[in-house]
Amino acid sequence: MLAFLAVALVKIVVVFGCLLLTVAYMTWAERKVVGDLQVRLGPNRVGPFGLLQPIADGIKLLCKEEIVPSHADRAIYLLAPAISLAPAFIAFAVIPFGDTTTLFGLLREPVAMVITDINVGVLYIFGIASLGVYGIVLAGWSSNNKYALLGGLRASAQMISYELSMGLSIVGVVMLAGSLSLVDIVNAQARWPFVVPQILGFGIFFCCALAETNRAPFDLPEAETELVAGFHVEYSSMKFAMFFMAEYANMITAAALATTLFLGGWRGPFLPPLAWFLLKMLALLYVFIWIRATLPRFRYDQLMAFGWKRLLPLALANLVIAAAVAPWWR
Amino acid sequence: MELLLFLVLAFAAIVAALLVVTHRHPVYSALFLVVTMLCIAFLFLLLRAEFLWVMQIAVYAGAVMVLFLFVIMLLDLRREERPWRFPEHRLQVGAGVILAAALAAQLLVAAVAVRAPAGAGPFPPAVVAARGNTQLLGRLLYTEYAFPFEVTSVILLVAIVGAMVIAKRRSD
Questions:
Q1: Number of domains in chain A
Q2: Number of domains in chain B
Q3: Predicted interface score ipTM higher than 0.85
């Protein structure tokens, strides 16, 4: 019991720490990559290649004045950033980074490289993701600001609409793997990653992941030109930063989930498992940023039409393909 | 350990449920209902019903309550319009007390009189552990309970079509 708790705690602390660090450096990477794509330099003053920029930003945000609007609903206003950040991190608990490790022979027994392998892992991530909407809705409402409320409603309507297609696109993978556990799903991809029979499903999943994380070209909830900044317009200091951290953490989770479900997770030749996992995840994150720098924003009716009239029927068609392939695949 | 977790969750669920009905602010009431749903979800987990646990979170704590919040926010129900007063609301209070007493009596009868049948049923813990909770549930749903399952889906479809018809008529 005690050993179990100790191992679990160590895993949680390590994964949480790495995730926080990745979130911080995603902001740096995003600015650098977008800078490159727009033939600029990006951050380059704080440290070599601007590498200390996230730390400088963090200190700045911590020291900024905290403002609570006078007619805001104080309790919910203060709680909303935390409600939005927590699910983003909790979802990572079921994602496997590798097979097992002894930390180069340091440990006597091999330890599984996943915080916990639960038998409903895929559904767990969906359940947790559906809680993430609360942070945004409540932030928009409690700020007592029209733009914030509109942004919050837009964000949640968008997230609810795209959650459906996302769920359907994953059903194909579940049918092929015959399990809801992410560890089993990675093991089922020992020969071929599921992106081969489920290329359509992967595309749908990726589009939905962009929409779920409110990223460009689906970043209407934060459309500066029409909504000022959307649901977090009244937030300042670290509370504002927490919404940004939640967005980046959600991006990382989405990329890690896509890697696990479609790209074979940590499996790959020659390199160690963790390297493969990180490589695939970072490649997907690069695509996220690339798309942001490339595509213009959707109009709201286009967004809803794309979600319900294109992605949803496509996801259903993908399900038929998965059902046809499944008997031969296993 | 399990008993401790159960006590904490059950207590939290009851306190949150009480706050749902006693809190003046509809948004807070909805949020406390979310807390109650989450506590119940984790009670399912304590019973090793993982599928129900996740579905309770995704459907009730997630989807359903977000819609509740939507409606409350769009109607802008800031505060309860009229505070509760006894003589004015005595009929409601009377009906509430009677219904609550009936429910409590039923629960008592169920807890005291009804005994679970002796011996193991068709799905003892060993079978469930070997074949998986979700797998067994799915098999039952699509074989033995296929008819009620399909009827439920048709009812839901009818409700969706009905909602669309009503919404369309109003906008024309």
A1: 1
A2: 2
A3: no
Chain A, residues 123-142, CB within 8 A of chain B, namely: 123-124, 126-128, 130-131, 133-134, 137-138, 141
Domain contains A39:
no
Q: Is residue A33 one of the residues assigned to a domain?
A: no
Between CA A79 and CA A90 the distance in angstroms is 17
| A47 found inside a domain | no
Site of tokens 């100790």: A6
| β strands within B45-146, DSSP E | none
CATH of the domain at B32: 1.20.120.1200
Q: Is there a domain that residue B122 lies in?
A: no
**Which pLDDT tens digit goes with each residue over A46-91?**
888 888 888 888 888 888 888 888 877 888 888 888 888 888 888 8
Nearest chain A residue to B34, by CA? A131
- Nearest CB to B58 within list A123, A153, A156: A123
3-class state of residue A168 by DSSP: helix
- In terms of domains, do B14 and B80 share one? yes
Strands (E), A3-159: 100-101, 111-112
CB atoms within 10 A of CB B79: 9
Render pLDDT for A150-160 as a digit per residue (tens, 0 to 9): 888 888 788 88
Compare CB distances from A126 to B28, B58, B73 and report the shortest one's residue: B58
A250 to chain B, minimum CA–CA distance in Å?
A: 17
Q: Work out the minimum CA distance from A197 to partner chain B, whole angstroms.
A: 23
Domain that holds residue B167: 131-172
